[in-house]
Amino acid sequence: MGDVPDTRAPHRRRAILFGIRAKLWLAFGAVAAMTVVASAIALRSFGTASDTLDRIAQRHLPAMVALNRVAQQGNLLLSTVPPLIYAESLDSLKEHEHAVTLAEEAFISAQAQTRAALE
Hints:
Elements: H1 8-17, H2 20-85, H3 90-118
Helix pairs in contact: 2-3
């Protein structure tokens, strides 16, 4: 019986190399690597989204605020016209004319601010 080689020894050595410990380390390493890759992708996506939001806040938001101001001043100007049309006396007409003039100046000023914001 001493002539028969032990065939279990090499198999047992391979099992030791890829035993449960090695498989667990490999699994934890794979999970850690996927976490690093996912984090890198998330950081890049966050950077892109942050740049887009910065561009909107710096470029488009001031223009929208200025346009909103023009719309408000335009509404104010339009609301001053009907009392001017239905004025019953010359004093009332002059008073409403002054209100229209002030609203028109505010509207023109808002337009100028909007042009400056858009440039």
